[in-house]
Design brief:
The chain has 13 helices and 17 strands. With 437 residues, the chain is of the alpha/beta class. It folds into 3 domains: 127 residues, Rossmann fold; 229 residues, tm_1862 like domain (pyruvate-formate lyase- activating enzyme, Alpha-Beta Horseshoe), CATH 3.80.30; 55 residues, OB fold (Dihydrolipoamide Acetyltransferase, E2P), CATH 2.40.50. A 5-stranded parallel β-sheet has the order 2-1-3-4-5, sandwiched between helices. α12 packs parallel to α13. The longest helix has 24 residues.
Length: 437
Amino acid sequence: MNVKIKRTCAFFTFGCKVNQYETQLMREELLANGFVETEKRPAFLIVNGCTVTSRADKKCGSLLKNLSRKNPKAKIILTGCYAQNTKALKIKPEGVSCIIPQDQKTLVYRMIEREFGEILEDNNAAAHLPHEFYGPQNGISEFPSHNRAFVKIQDGCDNFCSYCIVPYMRGGPRSRELKEILSEAELLSKKGFKEIVLCGINLGAWGREFKEALEIGDLIKELNFLPGLKRLRLSSIELKHVNDSLIDKFSEDLKLCRHLHIPLQSGDSFILKKMNRDYSAQEYLDKLNLISSKIKDISFTTDIMVGFPGETDENFNNTLELVKNTGFTRIHVFTFSPRDGTPAARMDSQVDERIKKYRMLTLEDAAAQSSFTFRKKLLNKKLSVLFEKRENDYWCGYSDTYVYVKVRTNTGLSNTIKKVNVSSVSITDTMATVCEF
């Protein structure tokens, strides 16, 4: 006779904002169907993995081993891009009880019922209701431990950058319906979330496959009417999607945060072409200069890869020079990681790991200087900050321009938006800008 197992669960998430959103989607589906989330010996451990780099692979693999060792009786459910990749490679990580493909993760309850239904304990009345009554979920209603709620508006990508595995894991672009997004955003706003972050795998592609094509600017315009929403932020968006219509929205819509994260990847046009990016270094610079001329005090953050196959010292120095001329407030620097199945993994002239590390450290220094230069210009100026958490004697949060701010105060500031004055900045603390009321 099978021993019954409880409907208890815990979640572990790696990777992008989309993955974080999708974990919440899975959480709400399981909780609606009788599961209880707990840290005390959960029966099911759901791991939402990432495979964008070899480092992400190692982190996921290491966690799975630790979970299996520490929780030998638990059922480990693996999903996400990491699960999709292990499935493609015909690998089942040790200790994993069930792999849910990336495109089926929102059916997590149905998959668990199919695999383990016979031994599940009926510990909640909701467990007796038909699955269709509760899900799969069409959206989230909460975003625990966050003051800013992520809303996924699209999935998939067809850019096929030569280094990127994501299109093979998630497929082509698919957009959520406008009404569905508005309904979810309205609910989150009513729950008290003052800022919503729109996220997607290829964010700017939203709406283009609709019968009557839409652009992300159309969605922004509709979201701007939500009464409880104070701020709307875009996550990573490609350069080609920052068109005149979107730029105009920053001046038309007061709720849209003056911040754009536009991936650069390389500041060298030759390397950009090898990466299958559809712009040159000069085109990137020209677009940022145009945006800055139209949107006062806007800030830019970006991603830059070092050590792409064939990258010479000259190519890398061109990237350094572009960083010095752009004034990014923050740069995510990472090294090229060969992904099986991508063109870049098969390219000649792979860069030595020691050179990659040196270039990464050099670029990180340049990124710190760039951030410091930008933040120095903010001294004695006012910033509007959404405070999120307390760190020691400080309350911390982000300005609308995505500057991380800390204020020393005993007053509780969680989930409040306050105007503060910038009193000091430091190059050694690139994440924080000290302010006061």
